[in-house]
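Suppose a colleague, Dr. K., hands you the sequence of a protein chain of 271 amino acids and asks what its three-dimensional shape might be. Before reaching for any lab equipment, you can write down a predicted structure in token form. Begin with the sequence itself:
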Amino acid sequence: MQRDNALALEPQPEDWSAIFGADDIAPSRLGDAVIERLTQAILDGRLKPGDALPSEGRIAARFGISKPIAREALRELAAMGVIQVQQGKTSRVRAIDSGPLARFYRFAIGNTRQGMLDAVELRRMIEPQIARVAAGRRTPADIVALQAVLTRMKASLGQIPAWMEADLAFHNHLAVMTHNSLIMLQSKALEPVVGQMMVRFNARTEREMPDWEATFLRHAKVADAVIAGDATAAETAMRQHFEAAEAAIAEIYGANPASDRDHREDNHVQA
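The predicted structure, expressed as tokens, is then:
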């Protein structure tokens, strides 16, 4: 009876061809071809977040493939974060979020020294530009939220867990202020890695209050420039923020061999 109810609830459009196209899939790489058809339907808007997918059996019948191949294709899409698959329930299209990219960054960076140095370098490359764009696109609501984050940061001086939460919120909100969905996704995806950096950064020594206050003032300088709409000053302030942390980063991770190499090559070219 339960099985019959599930079948009754399963969406049954008259012709899945309107969504998935022709059924002329070549026999090689069948799973990849099914994934391509499904993702294209999502990208084209024929399938939207929350929409149900046909069952494994219907997908198999539709494309003339085996159920195990259909099942594996759905699993790969689920691993990519494109669809949600639950045992005994209809698979549905998911709204895109940062989860899959966050997992990628965690595996790519790992716990290695070089991985963390690469992550620091990545942040130094993109965050000044994020500050610049945020300054040019800020809205009144964005400004109010940014000021609230600064208030949280000031109230949490010297309190490592609270400070880290507010610090992450500051950088994430600047990404939100760009109103660029890809920048927002990347910022959220990097959050676990950035959090790991912050743990190391804040635990390296016993920090005195003047050090905490100097760090806060660097964030405030970025915020002031963003609020004022001064894109150049916002970018410069963010660069200075990272430069000020250079000594601590070197203390934690050491010098970045890649950066040293590039620096030597630049000097050689200039000479």
